[in-house]
Amino acid sequence: MSSGRNTVMIYLYAVGVLLLAGLIAFAPRQIWLPAFVMALAAGVAPPIRAVIRRRSRTQREPTTLYVPPPSPPVEPLEHRVERVSLPSREDDYDFLLSATILWAPLKRPWDDRRINPEALAVNAILKRARNITEQWEPGRASLVMHELGEVLGSMEPDATGCVQAMAQAIQLTLSTEDQERLNKLAAVRKDKVVWEHDRKYEQSKREYLGEDVLKNTGSAVVWWLAKNDDHIERTVNDLGLLARLTSAANNKELLESNGNGSTPFEPFAETPSPNGSSPVDHLAAFLQITDLREKDLFTHQVALLVGTYGRPDVADEILSKFGLSDPEPPGSAEAPQDEGPDGPDGIHQNGWDEEI
């Protein structure tokens, strides 16, 4: 059927060529030129249409791509290292690394006579581990071991690109001797901190007592009153002891005890005070600051003590300033038989006051 169609087409082409030739030969140009163009288009169109059809048919046909089969996975090889020394941040203290190294080649084939892939893998793992351990103190071995597990737990190529390696079952320790030394050093540092704290506390306490409390007898008396909740009687009884403590704290010679076992006060300074105040003025200021109960009784006893210890003029000045009567010297009167050993109003014969 295709052959018959081709015959018809050839016949039509031949007739068309004859007609076109007759028109060109006998008809004017205005008639044959459009006919020539139409005949040329009709003759060129079928071949062009056939070429386009052939190309579209070729594009529709599916192309077959060749995909090579995947290469079988390479099983990694193992190598165990034991107690390899790696530096720490402290000199002479090395970590000891034990691990199982897994490695696989990256380039195939290789010449075994010129390349040792296992050695390359071990060296790559040790370099990666060293970059971590040299940044840590030797006392942190257990913490560094976990960081190594993260850093060495993935396959990475070595510097030559011949193998890739990773590590598992990692253990990081110190030698027994180094661990004992670190434990001793840690104990010494802790003890030193405690000792420094105790020393500073003791030094502060000494400064407080020497430069404030026992600076003079008056400061010691005020401090003792505050410690004993303003118990005037107990403070008066301890005046001799406070005077001795003050003298000893200031490297002054201790005065000998008198007949009743007490120690006299420090002697008054013969030179007047820089501001012109007298001992009586100091006593008045002391009474005003402390706000004692029974001030008259306390002042009376102070005047008695001052007169007994060799300054009757100051005792008279105290009594005159505060409007008190002259004190009786110790032992001038005997206690009545029916009023007990302390005499009336609870006053001892030695002039000391105690509540009954």
Task: Characterise this structure.
By secondary structure, the protein is an alpha+beta fold. The chain has three domains: 2-57; 77-179, 2-Layer Sandwich (Tetrahydropterin Synthase, Chain A); 217-346, no CATH class. 53% of the residues lie in helices and 10% in strands. The protein contains eleven helices and four strands; from the N terminus they run ααββααββααααααα. It has helices spanning 2-26, 29-60, 117-133, 141-151, 176-213, 217-227, 232-237, 239-249, 279-290, 295-308, 312-322, and strands at residues 77-87, 94-105, 156-157, 163-173. Strands 1-2-4-3 form a four-stranded antiparallel beta sheet. A hairpin with a 6-residue loop joins β1 (77-87) and β2. The model is unreliable at 255-274 and 329-356 (pLDDT under 50).
